[in-house]
Amino acid sequence: MFKAFKKVISVILVSMSLSVSCWAQEAGETMDDPEAQRVAPFKVFDNLYYVGAKWVSAWLLETDQGLILFDALYDDLTDLVIESIRELGFDPNDIRYLVVSHAHYDHIGGVRRFQEEFGAVVMMTDADWDMTEEPAIYREYPTPVRHLSVSDGSTLNLGRTRLRFMQTPGHTPGVLSTRFTVYDNGYPHDAFLFGGVGLNFSGVERTEMYINSVQRLMQLEEVEVNIPNHPESGEVFERFEMLKNRKDGDPHPFVDPESWDGWLEILLLNARGKLERERSTD
Question: What letter does residue 146 receive in the DSSP assignment?
Fold first, then answer.
């Protein structure tokens, strides 16, 4: 497990890097290259698997009544998600729901493909469904068919698995965040996927939305596991290396409530700094 000081420093660096990560493709020539972005899929908990790329996440949640996929990536990276699901021994046709964290191309670009090829039912907030009917902000993508709208406080039950949803606007007007249970050798832990972390938006109102969202998350109790939609937000690959070397009796490296709390504090600090800048130029 990371030392507390190292966690805080890492979180600071992560949150600073997020301001340029998910919308500045020009800075990274390999972001769209499937071979450069390929990551062997891996199991994190009894029921949760990483099936994403190096720079943007996709997660597969296994239930007793089928699969739930979080985010679909885009273009050739969607192929990586599909290949990863199969490599793990699952069938993409068993995806019952595709939960989209927000309507930026890197998370929603492959949704239409999952709808057409595998019949996945897509879930997103109304505000971000509306975004799909407007000109794309960063890059065009195939417009998905509008399926289910998720409201703040709603839930989804699939077999014995329950997802609890929060609308956490800021990064987009309708960011969808999800809380669910993961299991480590049968022992349950509360996990949370904050659906929109980056500060790549403008305006006082949106920044205030973001701050309010982070403050709401800070009020949640007993969140133990950060499930990020960009891996650097939760040190996914570093923690997986620790998981591979885990010995009997060692704590699970992804179960880390201290870093979750510290991460939110840094997100709030950065957002307040952004708010000051927005107000000074308003």
Answer: P
